[in-house]
Amino acid sequence: MSINWKKTILVVCDIAIAAYLLLAVTAFNKPDVKATQCSEVKIDIKENLVNGFLTTTEIKNLLSHDNIYPLSQPMENISPRRIEEALQKSPFIEKAECYKTQSGHVCIDVKQRIPVVRVMAGNGESYYVDTYGNMMPETRYVTDLVIATGAISHKYAQGTLTRVANHILQNQFWKNQIVQINILSDGSMEMVPRIGDHIIYLGVPNHIDKKLERLRKFYLYGLNKAGWNKYHYISVEFDNQIICKKNNR
After folding, report:
1. What residue ranges are annotated as transmembrane (predicted)?
2. Which of 145, 127, 147 is nearest to 136 (CA)?
């Protein structure tokens, strides 16, 4: 009986390749003695230099409270999903992602909620609202944010107030100038500036961009010449006009 050497060689090659792949996969998956425990936790907080409240220490404390801080823990016992779920329960965290590396590191990426206004409502409630209108509890940290006072319901804070606060923060001039927003009982809005002895009356908080641009021009071409303390009340409620009341002091 003749032997088909060509076929035999192909079979031997297939067996050799299969054996090599098996050994390679086994070697790749074999735990590294140095990486059997978590040797380092890398925490990256996005937008950490803006107005957020979170620090790496607080992330560590959150995980330690749930007994899942991974440092020095066996890598096989560390659940990235569980870490993500624990972090996303925090009202200060918008999104959390966690993954493990073969070198024994656990990496945690956190996107925090950025507050845009601090609410100190007339009914005694005090909280923050983020860029998307989500409510955030009071914190011990001091922030240089606009303070909103007066007749503020949760619905108003998460809608109209958030929209106005975002508009202020996105404009460097108004971000530096406005320190307080006050909501009157009829829903109309006042603002308190950092510079100038006056109250700004916006009326119904619509067309905010046009009203503030009109006021900015009045600041530039009016108050710069007349004096910043000449008026105690400036209204931009109505289109194409500005109503001022003189300061009698």
Report:
1. 9-28
2. 127
pLDDT band at 74 (very low <50, low <70, confident <90, very high): very high
Distance in angstroms (rounded) separating the CA atoms of residues 162 and 133? 6
Q: What are the beta bridge partners of residue 175?
A: none
Radius of gyration of the CA atoms of the chain, in A:
30
Confidence class for position 28, pLDDT limits 50, 70, 90: very low
Count, in order, helices (H) and strands (E) of the chain: 8, 12
Minimal CA–CA distance to 84: which of 73, 70, 97, 94? 97
Total-model pTM: 0.76
Domain made up of 37-112: CATH architecture:
Roll (3.10)
Selecting from 3.90.1150.10, 3.60.15.10, 3.40.50.11690, 3.40.190.10, what CATH number does the domain 115-246 have? 3.40.50.11690
Largest CA distance in the chain: 122
Rounded Cα distance, 79 and 68, in Å = 9
228, pLDDT greater than 70? yes
For residue 9, the one-letter residue type is I
Percent of the chain with pLDDT over 90: 66
Q: Where are the domains of the chain?
A: 37-112, 115-246
The predicted structure's pLDDT at residue 140: 75
DSSP codes joined into one string, 50-111: TT----HHHHHHHHHHTT---TTSBGGG--HHHHHHHHTTSTTEEEEEEEE-TTSEEEEEEE
DSSP secondary structure string for all residues of 139-193: -S-----EEEEES--HHHIIIIIHHHHHHHHTSHHHHHHEEEEEE-TTS-EEEEE
